[in-house]
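Data card: per-record layout.
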Amino acid sequence: MALRLDGNILVTGANRGIGLELVKQLAEKTGKGAHVYAACRDPQGDRSQVLRNLITLHPGKITVIQLDMAHEDSISAAVEVLRQKTGAGGLKVLINNAAINKPDPPAPLSVTGKKDMMEVYETNVAGPFILTKMLLPLLQRAAKTPSADKDHGDELSCRRSAVINVSTIFSSVEKCPETFTLAQVYPYRTSKAALNMLTRCQAEDFKADGILVAAIHPGWVQTDMGGDQAPLSTQDSVLGMLNVMSTLSSKDTGMLLDWEGSRIPW
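The structure for this 266-residue chain is written out next.
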């Protein structure tokens, strides 16, 4: 089944877990008009071998870019590469997936320090903030590019231009009493709550440019972060996320949704 996503798509944190599966399924399920930019900290490292294999499997469909979300110089360099490569089409979809979690779960208050909080916030919040800010001209360019699909769709959608921030149910203040015993992870929870506010602010800010902004919770997924006990495979999670992205519209901008499209309370 082909996804209703096309144009230039950037996925951060693309060498493992959900990010890697996003690149894989986007390469497999999108049409000829889509090109996936896969960004990660060390494209030539051992942990990026599977990502490099995908390039061979899908020639001409994937471009790997070096990007460290914790360093503004790295973000700036990656944006310059994208500016040169995306051309007149701009950037259709930015998926801010890269994130870290410190210290290791369950990470109670007693073992969590200021350094953990600041490092997690730098990657999970400041990184997406700076990257999206720098890429805004490319997102605006995509939103203005004529497309037959746009004429039949909603005013805001991923077929026009969108920013998707990968969040978590752990970010929900309302849901915290239900989820806190699963993993306390103070830095991760608070950083993702801040990412939700960033999502909400940018949704308001970018609305006039025709750019949709939404946050998606991928579920409890079998990744390095989620662990082996998680009930959801990366394949099923990402398939759900991409289906949700394909159907997003003006009513969803600024919202936190799960991988099945249900709204999560703040």
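Known properties of this structure: Helices lie at 17-29, 49-57, 72-86, 114-144, 148-151, 176-179, 186-206, 234-247. The chain has one domain: 7-258.

See the next section for split statistics.
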